[in-house]
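can u do me a favor
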């Protein structure tokens, strides 16, 4: 579901949804996994209720000096949630350097693939084989598999999750080759 583009509008919409019981409803979905993009985390953000209900917290950042500097206070605030880090791109700093700088494990590195991102966002044609072969999707498959392995995202059995992720990767639906 796409949200409002402006941060102020997104915060207002999210606060309204949370007051209407969004966190509880999402937590009650036992047959599906829910991924929520909480945007930039600020101390005054209403996403605290979603984070409190989450099974896993994954912070997304580019491995740049500015983004790593912005991560530090958020990591400190979320330390009790045991967050993981997902990097977009592998330059100028390697995953190991970023992990050491913020003292958080790196879940994986997504390829910086503008064409693949445009295709996923529906801004470009290429759904199907072209998307499956994109650097973005190929780099996302091991991240998804590791997330399933490290954090069971819903009430379903971990083996069911791992089998589903491996099946998608091997049959060409996502990231694999046919």
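np, heres the sequence
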């Amino acid at each position: 579901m796409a949200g409002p583009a402006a941060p102020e509008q997104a915060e207002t919409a999210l606060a309204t949804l949370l007051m209407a019981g969004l966190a509880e409803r999402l937590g009650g979905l036992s047959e599906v996994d829910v991924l929520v993009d909480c945007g930039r985390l600020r101390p005054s953000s209403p996403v605290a209720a979603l984070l409190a209900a989450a099974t896993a917290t994954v912070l997304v950042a580019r491995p740049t000096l500015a983004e790593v500097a912005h991560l530090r206070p958020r990591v400190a605030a979320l330390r009790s949630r045991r967050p993981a880090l997902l990097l977009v791109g592998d330059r100028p700093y390697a995953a190991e350097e970023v992990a050491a700088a913020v003292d958080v494990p790196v879940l994986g590195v997504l390829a910086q693939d503008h064409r693949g991102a445009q295709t996923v966002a529906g801004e470009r044609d290429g759904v199907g084989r072209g998307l499956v072969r994109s650097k973005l999707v190929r780099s996302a498959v091991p991240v998804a598999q590791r997330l399933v392995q490290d954090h069971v995202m819903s009430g379903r059995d971990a083996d069911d999750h791992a089998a589903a992720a491996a099946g998608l990767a091997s049959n060409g639906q996502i990231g694999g080759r046919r």
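DSSP finds nine helices and three strands in the chain. hope that helps!!
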